[in-house]
Amino acid sequence: MSFQPNPGDEVVINDIAYTIGQHPAAPGLAYAQAGRQGIVYQLLPRNGSINGAKALKVFFPKFRIPAMVYQSEHMESYSELPGLQVCKRDVLTPERNGALIGEHPDLLYAVLMPWVHGLTWFDVISDQKQLTAEESLKLARALAGIGSAMEQRGLAHCDLSAPNVMIPFFSEVENLKEASAVELVDVEQMYGSRMDRPDALLAGSPGYAAHRTVHSGLWSAYADRFAGAVIIAEMLSWSDAAIVEKAWGESYFDQHEMQTANERYYAMRESLQKRWGSKVSDLFVRAWESHDLSSCPTFGEWFVALAAADISLACAESVEESEVKVSEQTDTVKANQLKGTEAASSISDKPGNTNQNVSAPEPSPGQEAVVNRLFLQARALEDEGKPAAALEVYRSLHHFIPDNSAMQMEVEAAIQELDAKLNPKHDDAAQPAKIPFYRSKKFMISSAVLIVLLAGSVPTVKILADQAEVKQKEQEAAAKQAELKAAEEAEAARVAALKQQEEEKKQKAADAAKLDAEEKKKQAEAKKKEEERKALQAKYDKQAKYEAYLAKQKQQKLEAAKKAEQEKYDKQAKYEAYLVWKKENDARIAKQEAEQKAAAEAQRKQEAAQKAALKKKRAQNVVTLIAHYNKAYNAQKGRKIENAESYARDFKNLYNTDAAYFKGVGKVAARMNAINKFLSNTDYALPNL
Predict the structure, then answer these.
(1) Checking phi first, is residue 531 left (phi over 0); if not, alpha (psi -120 to 50) or beta?
(2) What are the E-state strand segments in 468-513?
């Protein structure tokens, strides 16, 4: 019978009763996790706590290897190392667990080991669960410490990947023991000097296998170095939101990108450099550019670099990123506000638009989301002790809030409070500044009047002097001067007109050049914006296609899982129908056998009763025969021949009813011979028998 347990089913292994655990996300189904080599079921002790849970790994037929017993015996000594508690294993063998394996043949060479609670690193990446800098460093140090301890003993996991790295650090189950923050599972391919080489070698998991070795099996002391470097880099970078958003899916890198120059590689290298320093990023670069596994950094080098890593760099980078994000959102809000103001101005400037009091439109759902997000960011900045940034966000937020709303009053109060805090008013500032005398209005008016008077007195004095000197020629000089003055005025007017025309021409040319430059600038800006829009649209189209591809992949996986589940249910239904038929058939056969057995038993009892009755009757007849003979003998002795003949005939008649039996009983046959002789000749004397 195949092993397909249901939640609550009992399994007894090595005289200990366990029950099958129920999947937390799928009530009614057994808690099982499928891997490349088999399926792992959760076993809960019948009389114990959740901390005593065990994992029962049932291998697929290809991986049911008898040498697993020898390998597990050597692994047990490594279970004391941090992160390798699953090395404490118990293999189910025909000698020790024959009855259970006979009932479920799939359990041959299955392995019982401790159950590790918590998420896998695969779950963290798939769910895009961003970590804090402290969590990133703690997990990376734990994995580096585990790898270093294994390398010092000549060990290697040989299938290091996100699904095989457990994170008890995120478990909701409290462990009484001081468990490692990271645990390794699926250790069947482990390399060691005393381990036998597995028959089927794995080539690494996509996203963690070096492309130069991906087509060959991994089984050496260096097998974990490249995959370990990638996972440590992922753990350190997972506190960077930009890296989390760039993840390929089930791992950060796509397998086709491994050890190539690509966008994700440069982004991770830059993130490691900024957050954890050049030593850490250099180790990652060494692993990425390595030509073989032995040239990758050792886990010991990673451990030393992480032990000296300064977490304040990562924390400062995270704070700076959050401030940049807030600033970008604020700039976006200001740009939207400016666009709204320009749009309102253009509407009010249109001819015929006499409505000066245009009501603000109702906020859209997207705008309402922006308002709520900005309000929460401003509150957070206040709590972090950044009043200037909070004031800027509040002022940007004020534009989007409907008039006379509760939030408007609250935001205005916050703006006034922060403004008063940042710009306190002093008494001296309230008094108007003293204006210098030479810049006073009174002084400027008096000066202008004086200049006008002086300018008017100069020609008057000059004329009086000329008249005194050339009084006699007054009339002639006056006429000549009038002619010269008229000519000069005409020439000055002509020159002024030409100059004014030239200046107007230059001004028109300058204005035209300015307009042309502004038009070209506008066209360039419009072209640039159009290119940016097209690039952004192309990016969105690409992202949409990728998301559609992911959705299709997810749907295909769901359909495949659904189909597999349906096949499993159909198979289970057929099997249950077969069990019902078999049970009914076995019951029918058992009933027939019981009826036949009962009939045979009744017949046997009847025959036994008949035999007992016949035996009893024969015994009575023997006694009667002896009595008849004795009576015949006594009658002959008493000379009562007729009575003797009567008894003799009774003897003979009774004897003939079962002669074959009486012939072999004691002296009955001898008595019959004597009776026959007596009946043929009454003178014959019956012997005393």
Answers:
(1) alpha
(2) none
Residue 81: name the closest of 148, 166, 165 by CA.
148
CB 380 within 8 Å of CB 389: no
Q: Are 284 and 267 in contact (CB under 8 A)?
A: no
CB atoms within 10 A of CB 169: 16
* Residue 522: other Cβ atoms inside 10 A: 10
Helix (H, G, I), strand (E, B) or coil at 368: helix
* Three-state secondary structure call for residue 18: strand
CB 687 within 8 Å of CB 641: no
Q: Tell me how far apart the alpha carbons of residues 507 and 301 are, in angstroms, rounded to a whole number.
A: 73
d(CA 506, CA 495): 16
DSSP state of 31: -
CB 7 within 8 A of CB 30: yes
At which residue do the structure tokens 């000197």 appear? 469
State which H helix or E strand residue 32 sits in.
strand 32-34
Q: Which residues pair with 165 in a beta bridge?
A: 184
SS in 3 state form for 160-229? CCHHHEEEHHHCCCCCCCCCCCCEECCCCCCECCCCCCCCCCCCCCCCCCCCCCCCCCCCCCCCCHHHHH
Which among 356, 349, 411, 339 is positioned nearest to 382, based on CA atoms? 411
202-223: per-residue pLDDT in tens? 667 888 887 666 555 678 889 8
Cβ atoms of 82 and 149 within 8 Å: the answer is: yes
DSSP state of 417: H
Q: How far apart are CA 18 and CA 43, in angstroms?
A: 6
Those residues whose C-beta lies under 8 Å from the C-beta of residue 62, and which sit 6 or more positions away, are 200
Helix axes 225-237, 263-276, angle to 10 degrees: 70
Cβ neighbours of residue 205 closer than 8 Å, sequence gap 6 or more: 159, 161, 162, 163, 164, 227, 251
> In whole angstroms, how large is the CA radius of gyration of the chain?
56
CA–CA distance, 387 with 393 (Å, rounded to integer): 10
Give the range among 66-75, 274-283, 465-474, 577-586 with minimum mean pLDDT.
465-474
Q: What does the mean pLDDT of the chain come to?
A: 80
Q: Which residues pair with 90 in a beta bridge?
A: 112
- Cα 85 to Cα 54, 78, 80, 172, 188: the distances in Å are 12, 8, 7, 19, 13
> How many C-beta atoms surround the C-beta of residue 317 within 10 A?
17
**How many degrees, rounded to 5, is the angle at CA 526 between CA 523 and CA 531?**
125
Confidence grade of residue 269 (pLDDT, cut at 50, 70, 90): very high
Identify which has the larger pLDDT, 33 or 438.
33
CA distance 121 to 114: 19
Give the residue carrying structure tokens 């000097």. Answer: 193
Classify burial at 228, counting beta carbons within 10 Å of its beta carbon; exposed 0-12, middle 13-18, buried 19 or more.
buried
Residue where the block lists tokens 């709204």: 340
Strand partners, 42: 55
Structure tokens at 568: 């499993």
Residue 348: is its pLDDT beyond 60? no
The residues pairing with 54 across neighbouring beta strands, listed in sequence order, are: 43, 114
Is the Cβ–Cβ distance between 314 and 340 less than 8 Å? no
Q: Give CA separation, 106 vs 43, 69, 101, 460, in Å.
A: 16, 16, 7, 131
Nearest to 50 by CA among 172, 187, 181: 172
Helix axis angle, 278-288 relative to 263-276, nearest 10°? 150
